[in-house]
Specification:
Blueprint: E1 26-32, H1 47-60, E2 64-68, H2 81-98, E3 104-107, H3 111-120, E4 124-127, H4 137-144, E5 148-151, H5 162-180, E6 187-190, H6 199-207, E7 220-221, H7 227-233, H8 241-253, E8 258-261, H9 264-278
Helix pairs in contact: 1-2, 2-3, 3-4, 6-7, 8-9
Length: 282
């Protein structure tokens, strides 16, 4: 990572720290530029389709686009930084050129990838390792001054440990970010549905999600098409729309501020209906 401040392109959407948290739920659309996405939606080396999908998501109501170039599914093969850069940078540049106003998140745990992505047009960092995978990530996020998603990805096996450990370990990661200079207002937390947790604990996490809001930061939840839904319904990833809809609605009822989804058009409707019930807004 370079020592110079990162130049982040201006995006003409409400500044992150003035987004109306609590008044509505935001939708993050997933754009995978990988060959091995668990849900079969990878678009590596297919820039025209990347832009088409990005446009469709925005037209359907996505508030943020999340671009990732390394699968994090169980048993995935780690991708070198050079290959991850080759995948994500052209995609981010193409999306930014086509959609100059949409916030773009870079889904990576590598500081060098995040830095290049910010220079290419990304305006947010989504780190599934919660700033622990790369010692330079926290300082990069602080220098760039962009929003950063801090996720929990540590293994938890015992139900009685789930919420105490989630809260404690996310708090430690928040402290790490603050110590590096990340502003409190720029932090989002993600409890890591499906990361280090077996299906039964993921279901418990949704039931107990409200407890995680004690940390005082906006809460991002990503359940879309995940294995826990297949565990319950017995369906493959491409046939988990209704399961995803149920988990999105329940996440919102239990405190989620952002939902990360593949099927934006359908989930925007779920979000709108859920917000009407939970928040009284739509």
């Amino acid at each position: 990572m370079s020592s110079a401040a990162v130049e982040v392109p201006r995006v003409d959407s409400p500044p992150f720290d003035r987004w109306p948290w609590g008044r509505r739920t935001f939708v993050m659309g997933i754009i995978n530029v990988t060959p091995d996405s668990f849900s079969g939606d990878g678009l590596v080396d297919r820039l025209e389709e990347v832009v088409e999908r990005a446009r469709a998501m925005v037209e359907a109501g996505a508030d943020i686009l999340d671009v990732g170039g390394e699968s994090t599914r169980p048993g995935h093969t780690p991708v070198p930084a050079e290959e991850e850069l080759r995948r994500v940078i052209p995609a981010i540049r193409a999306i930014r050129a086509a959609l100059p106003d949409i916030p773009i998140s870079i889904d990576t745990s590598k500081a060098v990838v995040a830095e290049a992505a910010l220079a290419a047009g990304a305006t947010m960092i989504n780190d599934v390792r919660g700033l622990t995978g790369d010692p330079a990530m926290a300082s990069l996020a602080a220098q760039a001054g962009v929003p950063v998603v801090i996720m929990h990805d540590l293994e938890i096996r015992r139900p009685e440990e789930l919420i105490p450990r989630l809260v404690r370990e996310l708090a430690q990661r928040i402290d790490r970010a603050l110590a590096a200079g990340v502003k409190w207002e720029r932090i989002i937390i993600d409890p890591g549905f499906g990361f280090g947790k077996e299906p039964e604990l993921n279901l418990l996490l949704l039931r107990r999600l409200r407890a995680v809001t004690v940390l005082g930061r906006p809460l991002l939840v990503g359940t879309s098409r995940k294995r826990t839904i297949g565990y319950v319904l017995g369906t493959p990833p491409e046939d988990r729309l209704e399961g995803t809809a149920a988990t999105v609605a329940l996440a919102i009822a239990n405190g989620a501020d952002i939902v990360r989804v593949h099927d934006v058009a359908a989930m925007v409707r779920v979000v709108r209906m859920s917000d009407a019930v939970v928040r009284g807004t739509w």
